[in-house]
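Before the break, one more example. Copy the sequence into your notebook; we will annotate it together after we see the structure.
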Amino acid sequence: MYIPILLASALFVSSVVAKQCINITVPVSVSARNGVFNIPTLRGNADATTFAQNLTSIRGNFTEEALLDYATVSGAYNISAKFCKPDMENGANPTVQVLTHGLGFDKTYWDLPFNSFNYSYIDVAVDHYGFCTLSIDRLGEGNSSIADPLRVLQAPAEMSALYELTMMLRNGTLPSVPHAFTKIVHVGHSFGSALSYLLAIMHPAASDGLILTGFSQNGTFLPTTVASWDSKLARLNQPLRFGNISYPAFSDALSMLGASASNLTAVAAEGTSGQSNVTLGEIQQLLQTTDLANFLAGAQPSQLPHMADLPTGYLTWTDAGSNQFAFLLPNFFDPSILLFAESTKFPFTLGELLTIGNAPPVAPQFKGPVQIVTGRQDAIYCGGDCLATGDPALASIPAKSKAAFPAAAAFEAYIHPNSAHAINLHYNATGAYHVIQRFLGAQGLAPS
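Here is what the structure looks like once it is written out:
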């Protein structure tokens, strides 16, 4: 007698209480047909602004304008990953979720070290539902190998790395994970979703299911996002993390800032007697939410020394305000998580921006189930309201992607309430996590 899938999942939820995780470094061989772009080397922040102006102009498609040719790029790289499994084994046929983060994050997006890990996607997937997970730092990010930000770090090459990891899971050759998985689900966020979608197009048999978070195929609002970022060279925005400033030079700069801060504090103190309108709260805002906060980020010794002195093709948004505009819905996130996310952000590359929307519009041969999970107020892919379709017959902007998966076993577009692009950073993040796990269970992809 078979126990229905949802009942079996519910029984398993109550039996799993912890997870076991290991950090691994995985050598991969990348080979991809990348674009050759005529983009001059960026020399400073003004060049980053010029690039953004060209990319967002309505005069034409800048990616096509800059494209000279295509060339195969290949090389050996290391991908940093964390593999987690239930503390209590769950049968002979486990399911592994491959978690791929988006621009501006690393693999900790899925296991956020904030507020005692209460925002952890991995905790829900593993501890509550018994899945295994493999969260990765995309090529060029986090603890993974650094690569050329224009020539190598494009969507095709990063998808190639994702495919290699997937095949290792399928064949039982992933280092320190001696199991050949027959059920592999790809879960992405934003650019990570775009890579998972591209994988389903190029290698439709590689994945048994797709979960695309922070995703739609409407690129109308991407220029607004890029403009809002006011992009800077990562090495100049957070020089202690991504540049080559020395600690003595940083200390000298900090001393000068300290003198300025003392003057500001004195002015604020005068304000209490009516001589000035500057308050200590305003000074705190200055120190926490502007470029100055990014300069101070990394004041502690770096945990990622290989990311120091990054090439100028690595960019980042300006400050916490730019971060909030793109990723967070006001009043539905902890203000402290914004400051945390800004101080620990990761850069994106010229090549990624040039190739983020270049995948074919249809994945005709992908046969697994597909779920799109996007925050209702997602600014990047919905312009701030995923239900504003202008078409009574279309439930949401992400729902239009059903046509992209004509052979899918199932399709669902779930719109998560009170959430913007970075669902995992909102108060109600875990609600979305449970929706995802239940969808996978209903499609026969729960561990068994």
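Residues 15 and 328 are 34 Å apart (CA to CA). Confidence is low (pLDDT under 50) at residues 1-16. Try to locate both features in your own notes.
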